[in-house]
Amino acid sequence: MKGFGAALTGACMAALGMVGLTGPLAAQGFERNILTGGPTGTYIQFGRDISDAAEKCDVTLKVRESAGSLENFLGVRARPHTQFAIVQSDVLEYLNTFAAEDEELARAVAGVRIAFPLYNEEVHVLARRDIETLQDLTGQRVSIGVEDSGTFLTASLVLDLAEVEPSERVMLSADDSLDQLLADEIDAFFYVAGAPTSIFESPQIDAERFHLLPVTDPTLQAVYQETSIPAGTYPFQSDPVDVVAVKAVLMTYEYNPRRNAYHAESCQAVSDVAHVISTRFRDLQENGHPKWQQVDLTDLPPGWDVGNCVNTGLSPSYELRCEGGAAAPAAAESSVNRVYRREICSAVGC
């Protein structure tokens, strides 16, 4: 895929230079961190919701901004004190595909696990009014997100699969993309995020000048999930827009608590947060970002396993005192993913 291969190789080589940091770190100065995304996206709001819920259980989880999904995926593998990250599921799929052919990439992917499936992220394409379809982006100046972001990956795949070739693929953040679109420096930009996302609530987006493009290419609908952004989701949007979506997931790492003190602390951090999310899930749905209401904790993406430290936190015997209390999940089974499904169904209902 154009652009993606180079970004993947560069990011993974940087990560591989850091992988030794994950193992031998001492527990002294230990932190719990979650990599999210930019300041206006849904990832960071979800991270804050999880952090707020954890605080009620006396668990401090720091929310960190990032470029997005690809950086987040590799960050879980390579960065110290980074036990969680929110990642788009197509990153998982394509990393697995490339890892089968690349030994070094396989090393970077090894040990990464699922904590929880989250919500579907809509592919937003904000464009000038005279650009009516995805195919009309051919020959235009299009921002596809910053390198290492999930938007960059998905936008690159969408354009390639739909056989659309802009005159220029610009790599900008969502905020910079909006500024350049308003200034007529670019013609459209991609942003992959759960709707509603705050950047499109800007009063500067004039409905007479700009609109969201429908993303209805049959090839894309075969790869991604078909969905719609309802009318009125954003101030400039009077009609529903048919698009495609990709699932966001919460990633973690397969820490071995018997390996060293750092792994033991990190495994406990994963277990603590897993317990928080499962037992306070209803509160997250009622008081968190609206996308929590669309989360199905049993909808695991294929090809990836749940971490053992996650299942530890779902155990009925796991002890974590939380403000307000919560019912414990049911007993475990043998397979890690069957354990996960059973415990989640017990905790939140299926």
What does this structure look like?
This protein is α/β, with parallel strands linked by helices and 350 residues long. The chain has one domain: D-Maltodextrin-Binding Protein, domain 2. It is built from twelve helices and ten strands. The chain has helices at 4-16, 42-55, 69-78, 89-99, 103-109, 150-161, 174-182, 218-223, 261-279, 281-287, 308-314, 336-348; strands spanning 33-35, 62-64, 84-88, 112-128, 141-143, 168-170, 188-193, 210-212, 225-229, 241-253. Strands 1, 2, 3, 4, 5, 6, 7, 8, 9 and 10 form a ten-stranded mixed beta sheet that branches. Helix 11 (308-314) packs parallel to helix 12 (336-348).
Topology (elements, then pairings):
Blueprint: H1 4-16, E1 33-35, H2 42-55, E2 62-64, H3 69-78, E3 84-88, H4 89-99, H5 103-109, E4 112-128, E5 141-143, H6 150-161, E6 168-170, H7 174-182, E7 188-193, E8 210-212, H8 218-223, E9 225-229, E10 241-253, H9 261-279, H10 281-287, H11 308-314, H12 336-348
Parallel strand pairs: 1-2, 1-3, 5-6, 5-7
Antiparallel strand pairs: 3-10, 4-7, 4-8, 4-10, 9-10
Helix pairs in contact: 1-3, 1-5, 4-5, 9-11, 11-12
